[in-house]
Amino acid sequence: MSPKAPITQDVLTLPRKLPEGKINLVGLTRDQLRAVLIEHGTPEKQAKMRTGQIWQWIYQWGVRDFAEMTNLAKAYRAQLAENFVIEIPEVVTRQVSEDGTRKYLCRIAGGHEVEVVYIPEEDRGTLCISSQVGCTLTCSFCHTGTQKLVRNLTAAEIVGQIMMARDDLDEWPTPGAPKDETRLLSNIVLMGMGEPLYNFENVRDAMKIAMDPEGISLSRRRITLSTSGVVPEIARTAEEIGCLLAISFHATTDETRDVLVPINKRWNIEELLQALASYPNASNSERITFEYVMLDGVNDSDEDAHRLIDHIKRYNIPAKINLIPFNEWPGAPYKRSSNNRIRAFANIIYHAGYASPIRKTRGEDIMAACGQLKSATERARKSRKQIEAETGLSR
Ligand code: SF4
Questions:
Q1: 313-346 burial, b if ≥16 CB within 10 A, otherwise e?
Q2: Which top CATH class is 90-386?
Q3: Catalytic residue among 87, 90, 115, 157
């Protein structure tokens, strides 16, 4: 086996069809769950208790079969099975990298596929999940940006990615067993395919479910939503989700950011910084992460590093800067900055008083990179030339 070959790759081909006419309970808020239970025969007086019980089975114990919900009467379980299903995305392929990174290709309704990546680290395990199939934005360094938006994911499909990973990690606790506080899956980042703030309601509902203390129970401080800069939705993210925020910043002038992150033409750097400065949750303990992909000769100069610091200081934003060595994909119009350049850039930021971790490239052997996930089945639809022509950037 070559050193870059994935350790395992399973291909599961059986599609899981949603039985006709049944409602999927996954992804419903507690209120929605209560309402569908009542609609399908649960007496109103019992509905709150039943909602709590079913919620716990689904999200705390990871149960998918109503027959296993042993604190419910047999007849009631049968009634539930007649009307509802508990469905999550189906894993189509699963690859495990030499460094433990796991990349899944998941199939959702309509036969579409999204990618999910699990990254184990010493003190945490982070799952990078997707919010859309494809993306309407066309960030020129991002492989997803070369794929057209197909559709928004539902709340079920978003929280279902977390449930799918817990299945694969075999991390559902057993009812009655003592609570295990060490978690393989401890953090979520919304950095996969799509712009989460263009699918706000579904992302919000899915994250609320993931945070619910009687279920998956992830703290809001362990969830990071990464946006390219949908300025009008930023304050709403703090109010309605309350999670941490990351920004795909990537450039220090409007001229360059217009090309790298074209949403900048709509809301430019100044407008974005103003929105971040007033992000209600931001504090020294809840800093905003500036994601900055290092592209050789495009955004990686010393002047860029100084400008980046000026921007952040001017608005007094509690920030840390994540430097991301570009993960080149076939046909990509950019090259990764050299390690020396990345270190020099990081040093300038660090000496200005900001954390500037350089993201370790993980799972390169399986091409897994948060923020630029790519489908092995739909790779490199556009050539380097096409992208250059569209972005007006030639190198
Ligand atoms: S970086 Fe994010 S917002 Fe930009 S094209 Fe890629 S998936 Fe879309």
A1: eebebbbebbbbbbbbbebbbbebbeeebbeebb
A2: alpha beta
A3: 115
